[in-house]
Amino acid sequence: MRPPAAPPARAASGGGAPAALGSLRGQLLRWLLGPLIVLVLLNAVSVYRNALDAADMAYDRSLLASTRALAERVSVVNGKVVADVPYVALDSFETDTLGRIYYKVTGIRGETVSGYADLPPVPANVPRSQAYPALVRFYHASYHGQPIRIAALLQPVYDDSMRGIALIQVAETLDARRGLSNQILFDTLLWQAGLLVALALLVWFAVRLVLRPLMRLKLAVETRSLSDLSDVDPALVHKEVRPLVAAMNGAMARLQSLIASQRRFIADASHQLRTPLTVLKTQAELALRECEREHEPAQLRAALGEIVRSIAATTDSTVNLANRLLTLARIEHGGEGMALAPVALRDTLRQVALELAPAAVARNIDLSLEAGQAGLIQGHALLLHELVANLLDNALRYTPAGGSVVLRVLAGAAEAGSGAAADAADAGGAGMVWLEVEDSGHGIAAAEREKVFAPFYRAAATLERNPGGAGLGLAIVADIAALHGAAIVLADGAGGRGLRVRLLFSALV
To answer: What global pTM score does this model have?
Structure first.
């Protein structure tokens, strides 16, 4: 089959090719989900930090409570600061909630009263906590290789002999805090991941729902036949896309006007070409009869007869060329708009065979018809008649005298017995119809079988045997076959001689 001509490429402004925009759905999903993912991640960080701050505040409050409980046991006895810390109180400090606890009580003169003497001192730059009405400072430190959190409380102590400020420090390891922070992080990521998945699904469904009118427009345009140039309904799409639909409708209206103009030209050209050529042929035949009269000199009659015969042959060739050009133009510009109806290929083959039988008899060619069932297909009767006529005319032109031409139609695999019919049946199933034209001529070389469907291309063998041909017969056949959705196969004839043209149609169910 002839491949369709590719449309000319348009140069983009600036000299380069325009970049492909890609999928609209993909772009919408990227632009919607991308910012959403960033916002969800930022929200996850914010939630995590707030949760950590709340957890630190809760742990610090517990640590302060422990410090105050210890401060209540600090007093002045006989002019000395003492801390009455029983083992039961120390055991109550070491809970699963706080982790391991360390403490230290420092007197008003800086002496260690009780607890762990090597507990890190309060740094000078640590401010007093504003969250509590106590003179407490919180800070991080390291104790025996372990990170700890320390609450340092200034506790007033006094008696009748002295008064001052004692320092009570209670430290806890960060194991519990780290476990809670990890749990908070896991919960935050889990909830944010669920939220992200839910948002992604909602965005995907929303984009799909919003783009559904465009998909309906796409389907409506794709399912149209080439002859349907009516307006697309703007109500199918959103208000923002309606200017595009209006532009499409305007383009189709201009195309419809162009096609109508071309059809009028074809009709006018048909009358303008056929009428003078027919008159010319009639005049040439009249001149030929006048030249054959008895009173004309023999030499003059012979010369004039040769000239007139040449005129008649040229006229026949011109008429044939004009008819085929008009047929080709009619198919290319108006074939899609032609109404289709059930056609029996057997009847079409019989009619064409009767029309061209005189040409076969004149060339002493055995013309035969092999037809089984009716072979009904959905098609255009006149175009199918033109298709068969072109195939048979080519076969008769390029088959030597004394040869044979066979017209064959097979409906379904049930009729495929052997030989050519069996080969045809192998190409499809019972729901197909095969049309074949087989001759015993010189055939077409395998290397040229794809080229002969191009207009005005003529194979080398045909040029030698019929230099006056137009090279349009198989081009017309290819276009008519394409309009009917038929496949064309060129193969060798029976015994490797001649040419077999096979067309495969869908049977009318």
So the answer is: 0.43
